[in-house]
Write a structure and sequence with these properties.
The protein is mainly beta and 166 residues long. Helices cover 12% and strands 46% of the residues. The chain has one helix and nine strands. It is globular. Bound molecules: 2-acetamido-2-deoxy-beta-D-glucopyranose (3 copies). One 2-acetamido-2-deoxy-beta-D-glucopyranose (NAG) binds next to strand 8 and strand 9.
């Protein structure tokens, strides 16, 4: 009896230790000569279901425009959507950006205005200057907040591994 209890205790210990230390599983999103992109849910139980974003081309070299295929069934209406983006490299936060993606009027993204539970299957264009990052691993955490109460509805954790200097 005592023995059985002890095993139970051990099992509980192992489960809770794993629960705290095992990171969310990372999936390979794409891989090319110059970069690998992996993604996972954010840790601490912030799960994003029914979301996928594929980025084409899978390269940063000599580019300033990318196309993303977005598939998403949001958990809230996307009339008002705010994004927070944080980029870390070598343990330091290097970029912090907050912005409105959807404001309810004159929105530039096709997914703006989608209702809770609606299927979004669209492409989005990203553009920017050709990034000048050094080789190494970067963590990009993207959080989406919906509505006036800023409800967190998505949290994704991307890892970009830059294999050669850009
Ligand atoms: C995030 O968590 C949800 C719910 O557990 C799961 O369905 C989904 O596959 C996860 N996504 C990733 C990228 O691990
Ligand atoms: C994102 O993933 C990295 C690497 O797996 C991890 O170290 C970091 O804690 C994660 N961040 C969040 C907010 O989940
Ligand atoms: C999304 O749309 C594309 C092309 O419009 C289609 O090929 C794909 O099957 C759709 N995906 C889902 C999950 O409905």
């Amino acid at each position: 009896m005592v023995y059985r209890h002890r095993n139970m205790f051990l099992l509980v210990m192992i489960l809770s230790v794993c629960g705290f230390t095992v990171a969310e599983e990372r999936h390979l999103l794409c891989s090319s000569e110059d970069i690998d992109i992996l993604y996972s849910n954010c840790s601490r139980g912030l799960q994003t279901k029914d979301f996928s974003l594929k980025i084409e081309p899978c390269s940063l070299k000599g580019r300033s425009v990318w196309r993303g295929s977005l598939f998403w069934i949001p958990r809230a209406d996307l009339t008002i959507l705010r994004a927070h983006v944080n980029i870390w490299s070598k343990g330091f936060e290097s970029v912090k950006w907050k912005g409105d993606l959807c404001k309810g009027v004159d929105d530039g993204y096709t997914f703006c205005g989608a209702l809770k539970g609606e299927t979004i299957n669209t492409t989005v264009r990203f553009s920017g200057r050709e990034p000048t990052f050094e080789e190494g691993e970067y963590t990009i955490v993207v959080k989406g907040f919906a509505g006036h109460h800023k409800e967190l509805i998505a949290c994704l954790n991307y890892t970009i591994i830059i294999k050669q200097p850009l």
